[in-house]
Amino acid sequence: MNYVDFPVLFDVQDHDLERVAQFGQLMAPQIDAMIDPLYDFLKMALGHEFPLHFPDEKALTRAKSLSRHAWLEFLNGRWDEGYAKSRIRIGEVHAQLQIEPRQYMAAMDKGIDLMCAFVERLVEPQQVRATQESLRRLSRMESAFVVDVYASRTSDIITKQSRALTDMSTPITALWDGILMLPVVGIVDSRRAQDIMQRMLEQISEKRATVFILDISGVAVVDTAVANHLIRMTKAARLMGSYTIVSGLSPSVAQTIVELGIEVGEMRTTGNLQDALRIAFDRIGKEHPVGQR
Question: Is 155's pLDDT higher than 80?
Answer without folding.
Answer: no
